Amino acid sequence: MPAMLRKLAQRLGMLQHSFAGGVHPEMFKVTAGLPIEVAPIAPVHILPMKQHIGEACSPLVKVGDRVLRGQKIAKSEGYLSVPVHAPTSGRVVRIEEHAIPHPSGMGLPCIFVESDGLDEVDESLEPMADWREINPAILRERVRMCGLAGLGGAVFPTFIKLIQDKRFPIETLVLNGIECEPWLTNDHRMMLENPDDILSGMAIVMHMVGAKSGIIAIEDNKPDAATAMREALSRASDMENVRVVVLPTRYPQGSEKQLIYSLTGKEVAAGRLPMHIGVVCQNVGTSKAVHDAVMLGRTLTERLVTVSGDACDNPATMSVRLGMPVRTLFAQRGLDDLSGLHLLHGGPMMGERLKNVDVPVIKSTTGLLAMSNATMQQAHTEEQPCIRCGHCSEACPVHLVPNLLADACRSDQFDKAENYHLFDCIECGSCSYVCPSNIPLVHYFRYGKGQIAQTRREQIFAEASRKRSEARDARIEAEKAEKAARRSRVRQEHAPVKTGETVEPEAKDATQEKS
Amino acid sequence: MPVMLSPPHAHGGDSIRMTMLTVILALLPATAISVYLFGWLAVLLIVTCMGTALLTEALCLKWMKRPLSTLLDNSAALTGLFLALTLPAAVPWWMAVLASVFAIVLGKQIYGGLGYNIFNPALSARIILLISFPLHMTTWIMPMSAVEPALNLYDFSLCLSFFLVGPDALKVGFDAISMASPLGYVKTEATLGVPVSEALNAYNYSYLNAFLGFEAGSIGETSALALLIGGIFLLARHTITWHIPFSYIATVLLLAGLFNALYPEQFTPPLFHLFAGGLILCAFFMATDPVSSPVTPLGQIVFGIGCGVLTWSIRSFGGYPEGAMFAVLLMNCAVPLIDHYFRPRVYGYKSGGRS
Ligand code: SF4
Ligand code: SF4
């Protein structure tokens, strides 16, 4: 009965510790009870020069170079960027463009590392076991050079969130163990098998950002994970200010802003970051990676990947070296023939369909799902007219009105779409999930966002060239005026009788405009 | 396989067909009671309306070269059933046919088909009929064939001849079989200056009868009980939300309660409003019609309040005794405005829309 009452209260939006909206997709966590398996090293690993959100890296090695596991092979070029490391020891055999997991099927420069089977490790990074004594800025640099990016799937460079800013003191570190996407079980298994490393990473992050308290958030469909984390907490020293909070299972509970609302009842204002309200979120997998980077001096060369899906008879949560070709990994699970299957990169709610199976596992590869044709067809049946049932508005965790928004995008009324907060849509897909008319709403939002971005780029370009040509005109004007002025000065000198004549005003204006 | 394969790659399994079927199921108690109360007349009416609606829809689809499989979305069947339930048992067959054709053609297809109509198709057809044939549309037969022997509702041939030929077939006029509905009766008396309590007494009005359905009215709207069962089913199945029915009914009750308390002899009491006429049918089934109601919860509450105010006002001050259907239709016009102005506050923004 209390459970029913709570459900009712949630549906009415009366419980504070729950965001309004969201859906309950079937979870299919078939690999939840299976221990993590270690994938073997592939003959050749393919390392794209960009595996995170931000700017691409540039290679540090040449074809023929020998590399060690963990060695930096590409350096970050911009601020929002993290380096790439060799996943195993071997030789660089090629550096060329290759397909990466991306909806557009686009390619990027990649370094191909051929394994020598020795898996020798580059030990040049010293462990920092005394991190409590170390300046957070130095730890942050360590996290950066180890190539860490959010392993929950968003792959935002981790070090960016680890800054201490006097103006925005961090109250709470939230460790995100929600894992609300169906099928995926990485965080779940990680919490069961490495709870102590996760906590160690959490302590380091709290030290770095100066957080006073910590919350480990777990959905109630993983009670064993919550127990494991609680037990680890009781073993850990000086982590009394950290607690485990179990939240009701609802997609997209794991989305940062929704999670913060569920935990604190606070909203992150539009255009601001969680740190502005004193919160920093990290995924549990990222926390483990922080532990590895600081305590063991290990760079990011592997991640957990759930290989599953209804067409995969032998699913598993796997520890995979980055750069492993997807085809090889599926073959590991007995899927040699992928024809007739639909492959997803990530979970079914926000993941992308893979057009090419020769792409590698990258830092954002949370899952690789093999789906049968029938399942995909069921999910993508023919679009019917909107019957304005309002289920999409009810499901939207951002409180948008998806059907009106999609209408505006579809009819190219982009001003209206922006007015309806198109850019606040997090593309969680909850709206499409519940739509009885099977309208691919997210598709329309992406179309709208793409068109608007395109127009903006063009506008900026046009503006720049307008400025350039204006400046040129002004310069010519100014030169002309200058000449005229010189001429008139010359004339004046030769005709001293004239009065009241000054330099032409336009000349002045033109020079001013130029400056 | 369709070409568009953007995420999500999972679907909850809801469909238009199931939604419409759920509403049809929710109307079953009311349908069953209407058959119990009005016998073969109700059966004939429902079959005619649903049949004509489906046929008309099929013809429209054929003419517009759309796939006939669209019929399977159950929306035309639902419109037919809706319409039948809002008609008096005494309407002749041709009026039922006309109304069904109106509902599909004028109520839905001219706007572009399902999803594009501004008004609830069944309601608009019913209103066209009410305005065109006021006499037929306000001639009520006493439920349970109390007017025997003029019309025996259990006798199929009698009902069929009444349906096909009208009261003339029975050698009786409308006056002999008709009776006023409670709403109509009180309204007429009120215009003559008779106080509400006296009128109700004279009518022999009983709240229990009204709740169960033993009062004159359209075949599907008499039984508040049956409609409430269906409404609760819809709420439980999450086909509708509480916003519209709750705000609608609460508004009527509040207004009626307030005015009845202040001027008991001029304004009818709230419970009378609740059970009389089509308030419950409209609140749970008509006003919640997804296509012609607002999409956001906030908008739905505004819509419900609007329907409530209009229903009570028309019943209390208007020329027609019943206001529920007019109210819903009028509010349908306001839906685009409501949708635009009553959007929820977006995450991360203050109520003014600033961040
Ligand atoms: S869920 Fe689908 S049919 Fe319902 S209002 Fe939204 S877009 Fe329209
Ligand atoms: S995809 Fe966008 S519009 Fe749809 S539910 Fe998610 S946030 Fe709302």
Report what the structure shows.
Chain A: Its cofactor is [4Fe-4S] cluster. Chain A: GO terms for molecular function: 4 iron, 4 sulfur cluster binding; electron transfer activity; metal ion binding. Chain A: Part of a membrane-bound complex that couples electron transfer with translocation of ions across the membrane. Chain A: Keywords: 4Fe-4S, Cell inner membrane, Cell membrane, Electron transport, Iron, Iron-sulfur, Membrane, Metal-binding, Repeat, Translocase, Transport. The complex is a heterodimer of chains A (515) and B (355). Chain A is built from 15 helices and 17 strands. Chain A is an alpha/beta fold and 515 residues long. Chain A has a domain at 384-478. Chain A has a 6-stranded mixed sheet, sandwiched between helices. In chain A, α5 (223-235) links the parallel β10 and β11 (242-247). The relative contact order of chain A is 0.12. Chain B has one domain (17-337). Chain B has 17 helices and 2 strands. In chain B, strands 1-2 form a two-stranded antiparallel ribbon. Chain B is globular and about 65 Å long. At the A-B interface, β16, α9, α10, α13 and α14 of A face α1 of B. The complex binds iron/sulfur cluster (2 copies). The site of one iron/sulfur cluster has 14 residues of chain A, from α10 and α11. Residues 386-392, 402-403, 434-437, 439 of chain A line the site of one iron/sulfur cluster.
